[in-house]
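Subgroup meeting minutes
Present: P.N., E.W., G.H.
Scribe: E.W.

1. P.N. recapped why we're keeping a running log of single-chain structure predictions: easier to compare across weeks, and new members can see raw inputs and outputs side by side.
2. G.H. added today's entry (238 aa).
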Amino acid sequence: MPHAQNTLQIPAADGSGSFSAYMALPEHMPAPCVIVIQEIFGINQEIRDKCDHLAALGYVAVAPDLFWRIEPGIELVDSVEEQLQRAFQLFGEFDQAKGLEDLQATLAFVRDDARCNGRVGCIGYCLGGKLAYMLAAHSDIDASVSYYGVGIEAMLGDAERIKAPILLHIAGEDEFVPKDAQEKIEETLLDHPLAETYRYPGMDHAFARGGGMHYNAEAATLANTRTESFLGTQLKKA
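Output recorded in log:
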């Protein structure tokens, strides 16, 4: 049965306004929720598709517009050079501390939504992969998944703050995460009781971005299968 779609308006914690979030709803509710954290391309069709897929798996899926403080409603793709450059510009302008604050507000908002059963996880990609790690360390989220997060190696001191399971997917040939950074992440989290990391040899950044320039169906399927198993274990507990 097709799932329903909706748009949320979430009040910012700092009182500066509210921001929108794409929501996809499963057939049966209340259900666990997954916050889908955007890349540098905004809430585009790829992010909405990921939400829709999660809804089909039985989750309430919510993707907040984290670029709203710069420009609301941005939708870009990596296949158009002008849009790719705009995405990098937005990444430079983005205030990650405020982004984390907006994700914390999203977490609190969806936990109180009657359609959510109170268990909430997140999945982040690229910029969102770093923010998923930050949210794991700075909130009471129930589970986090990071796909090729950029800059995590500089935040490993926060690992001791992580109190719920986290899964990290690392692209072995990530142009934005050098090999030494990948090794530092793996070595630091190796003995963390709640962290699980996978490296994908030969894969470049954003190998799981559908239709993206580095998309690899085999690696994406493997990573997504691991993610779905992880979320099922953590969020669909009896």
